[in-house]
Amino acid sequence: MNDVSIAVLGAGAWGTALAILLARAGRRVTLCVRRPEHLKAIRSARENAAYLPGVEIAHDINLSSDWTASVAQAGVVVMTVPSRHARGAIVPIAAGIRRDALLVSATKGLEPGTLLTMTAMLREAVPGISGTAVLSGPGFAAEVARGKPAALVAASSDEAVARRARDLFAGRSIRVYSSIDVVGVEIAGAAKNVIAIAAGASDGLDLGASARAAVITRGLAEMMRLAAAAGGRRETIAGLSGLGDLVLTCTGDLSRNRAAGLALGRGNPPATDDTTAGRPIAEGISNAQTVRELAHRIGAEMPIVEAVYRALYEAQPAHTMVEELLSRELKAEF
Questions:
Q1: In this structure, are strands 47-48 and 52-56 parallel, antiparallel, or unpaired?
Q2: Do 122 and 78 form a contact (C-beta atoms < 8 A)?
Q3: Which of 89, 107, 237, 284 could make an S-S bridge to 257, C-beta 3.0–4.6 Å?
Q4: For residue 296, how far is the Cα from the chain centroid?
Q5: Which one from 40, 108, 148, 192 is the annotated catalytic residue?
Q6: pLDDT value at position 273?
Q7: Which pLDDT value is given to residue 261?
Q8: How far apart, in whole angstroms, are the C-alpha atoms of residue 276 and residue 281?
Q9: 112 near 85, Cβ under 8 Å?
Q10: pLDDT reported for residue 322
């Protein structure tokens, strides 16, 4: 597989980290950068100072702003563009993507409006593509890029494709498991970001470790309900892409979603748009909209997600969010 050319779309923190991971394993990798000034800065410093400071980008990683040419030569295309911009990034180059290529989403989110998962959106945007997969699970970009150990999951409805994606990303420091529950894996990736904002808000309000544990556990229950209602498997939510990623995102100091929640709890709500290019963003902010909408559409009860949405988009104070959650009608846990 080392002779396969790989195009990584998007030079944010995760895209850069995956390009470094793949190159470290001997893959031929092109990191596709959107903005010319960003490309120039990375080429000059061999470092993505805007998104992944302090991590060297080896010279064997090709850098390009010509996405069309890059995907035309690639046997594997890895998409890391944020969910709200993903279709806009892929449609202009869709005709150039080889139909025998493996198309992998490493983006955690649902498409605004359609509420499609990223692999479903990719199949719609690139008709006739032979294989799609999703890479997810608990991995901070800075740690993965520096070669620290992590375990991830690669999922596809086609078991052979899932194994191919698994083998592609596995390396000395990364263990990758395969799954055929694409829906469960992708729903988990989007929903856990929203729960992490709630956990961060709890910490920002200084409610203590017990409250944080309650948010994580009840948030996991919400994720299970949503995944099951969408056609996924509950056991997937107990795995790497669910519980594993949820714990990491809710507790890790490198979590942008937790940081957004901390700001919310401290009375400094984060901006709900990402119009400023060149800065890292918390995916959970937009995920709060799409996950809430999907939950309403398919009838999954998600009070924590609902509370986060109101705090972000309806200016409800974080302490009010907590009070409402605690005053809900008592019931059996299961």
A1: antiparallel
A2: no
A3: 284
A4: 22
A5: 192
A6: 74
A7: 97
A8: 10
A9: no
A10: 86
**Arch. (CATH architecture) of 183-326:** Orthogonal Bundle (1.10)
Torsion of CA 51, 56, 60, 62, to 10 degrees: 20
- The single residue listed with the structure tokens 């203590």 is 208
Question: Which residue from 195, 197, 189, 257 is spatially nearest to 227, judged by alpha carbons?
Answer: 189
Helix H or strand E encompassing 155? strand 150-155
Domain 5-180 class? alpha beta
What's the token pair of residue 293?
A: 């909408």
Q: Break the chain into its structural domains and give their ranges.
A: 5-180, 183-326
Active-site residue, 108 included: no
Task: Quick: pLDDT tens for 157-176.
Answer: 999 999 999 999 999 999 99
In one-letter notation, the amino acid at residue 104 is V
**Residue 54 CA, distance from chain mean position:** 22
Handedness of CA 194, 280, 187, 271 (dihedral sign): positive
Structure tokens at 32: 């596709």
pTM reported for the whole predicted model = 0.95
